[in-house]
Amino acid sequence: MRLSTRSKLLLRLAVVVGLAFIYIPLIVIAIYAFNSSTLLEWPPPGLTTAWFPKAVEDSSVRDAFLTSMKVGLVATTIALVILPIALPGIVTGVALSDTFTQVLGVSLSLLTVIIGHATFCIVVVYNNVIARLRRSAPSIDEASADLGADPWQTFRYVTLPAMRTALVAGALLAFALSFDEIIVTLFTIGAGQETLPIWIFNNLFRPNQVPIVNAVAVIVVLLSILPVYLAHRLTREEEGVAGARAGGPSIAEATATP
Amino acid sequence: MEAADALASRPRRSVGRRLADLFHGRPGLQVGSLLSGPVAWLVVGYLGSLAVLLAAAFWNVSALTGEVSQTFSLDNFKTLVTEPVYRTIAWRTIRVASLVTITDALLAFPIAFYMAKVASPRARSALVVAVLMPLWSFYLVKVYAWRTILSAGGALNWALEPLGINGPGYGTTAVWLVMSYLWLPYMIIPIYAGLERIPDSLLSASEDLGASPFTTFRRVILPLAFPAVVAGSIFTFSLTMGDYITPTLVSNNQFIGNVVFNNITNNLPLASAFACVPIIVMIIYLLVARRLGAFEHL
Q1: Exposed, middle or buried, B283 (CB in 10 Å: 0-12/13-18/19+)?
Q2: Within an 8 Å CB–CB cutoff, is residue B60 touching chain A?
């Protein structure tokens, strides 16, 4: 579409403002992580890297990190092996909590968190795979059958390799989501257990923990941005030029809301 | 007779072959068997849980023992309707969800339009990454960042000070601002996908017929992209209704999610009953969205 220079400029301005809106809070929190003062005042009086070693050495942070890893890995695995719907996360959380405590009589624990996470992880993996399957031609499976492959062989040598990167991308995204999830987690976690987001949540209101929370926040950002970036690269490479179309991400993100 | 001969003369075939025959040309069956696993998980894990939630909404907490008694009554719903505080909270939640949706639609449209129709392919994929990255992760960190920015000595007040104004501080305005921030990518992506589907030739045709860019936008682009906007609004609306972390961190006001969360241990039936409010609102919302054709853009 041909646009006047002025409207193009206005559009660019809108994009810059939008991106600034998206990224400035993240930059602010990243700067706070290096704040030499323990108070949250802007601008920070000085910079230091002292909080990162402190955060890494903190045993409760470590425990929470390990718990997060465990939940993320197991939930992702379940979602991958089994291969939500636009309802708010609170509904999922309270519904699962009801079921566990009232109907099944299970006490809340790490296991219930994993089941909760797996429920939305499945949707993410599934969306990635189905988007890929939609794009692949059914004639490939027919060709495989014509060449004498039985259905298992077709699945093993034709369908699965075609889906492989979609599966990996879905798994990475599911892991990132699980690593970051808090709403379903708060409803399904047992007493005394913490994932990393729950640790942040529990320590947010403690003034003396502020610098460590800032450092952990930046660590969480770095840890979850990596799988998302890798997943994006994987789906992009596979789809080539067609990957510029938004069909994949839009469907994938559509039902991924925890 | 002939038919029987023909059958007998066919070579014996393996089970796999016969299965392949069965599946061939029956896409419904293929998809059905592929999906049976996840569907079973969703039906049992998700819909089953929802059924329990609905049932629990009709249970009661004994005033004496504090135990949940599984007997049917409408008391919880009566409480929700008669206590004005619950009406205020429900109304506040729906109002903020609507405001967030409108804000995000206004912010997202120009960005999505630039991505889909103006940017070069390189810039486009860079923008998609830039928008998608924060969408997938660190929800809590983002809310926390806003909590620090909005605090009394925070970056917002610092930036606004030269202009002689104060930031909104913590409160419902802050909730609106932070939610708009959180869910913006969920609006950009569907609109971008919707705009990409509009062929450029349509826009050229409109131009050839003498329409100004503004007329083209109003009469061609907007009607075609509207279902995508509605599709995006499903996320912004639903996510705002369900969030109880943001209100806790940047306001002292209660939203539906806070009431549900605060009652989950003491009065689970009441929490379940209040959780029905977002369900009902979302069902109505989804029905309207379907009428507007939004589902093709999900």
Answers
A1: exposed
A2: no
Select the residue from A34, A41, A68, A87 to test the B interface by mutation, using most B Cβ atoms within 10 A: A87
ipTM computed for the complex: 0.71
pLDDT, tens digit, 9 for 90 and up, residues B28-58: 666 666 666 666 766 777 778 788 888 888 8
- How close B41 gets to chain A, by Cα (Å)? 8
The kind and range of the H/E element at B39 are helix B27-41
Which of A21, A111, A250 should we substitute to test contact with B (largest number of B Cβ atoms within 10 Å)? A250
Cα distance between residue B34 and residue B17, in whole Å:
18
One pLDDT digit (tens) per residue for chain A, 258 residues: 667 788 888 889 999 998 888 888 888 888 888 888 777 777 888 888 888 888 888 888 888 888 888 888 888 887 776 654 445 556 666 666 666 666 666 666 677 778 778 777 777 777 777 777 777 777 777 788 788 887 777 777 877 777 777 778 778 878 877 887 887 888 788 777 888 888 888 888 887 888 888 888 888 888 777 887 787 777 765 554 333 333 334 334 433 333
Token pair 């206005």 in the structure block, residue = A10
Distance CA A57, CA A69 (A): 17
**Which amino acid type is present at position B162?**
P
A47 φ/ψ angles, rounded to the nearest 5 degrees? -120, 145
Q: Does domain A58-255 bear CATH number 3.30.499.10?
A: no
The CB density around residue B78, as the number of other CB atoms within 10 Å, is 11
CA distances (Å), origin A175, targets A73, A110, A226, B140: 7, 16, 11, 16
Residue with tokens 């209704």: B241
At residue A237, the 3 state secondary structure works out as helix
Strand extents, DSSP E, B1-127: 60-61, 68-69
CA distance to partner chain A, nearest, from residue B20 (Å): 6
DSSP string covering B133-187: HHHHS-HHHHHHHHHHHHSTTSHHHHHHGGGT-----SSHHHHHHHHHHHHHHHH
Alpha carbon B9 to chain centroid, angstroms: 58
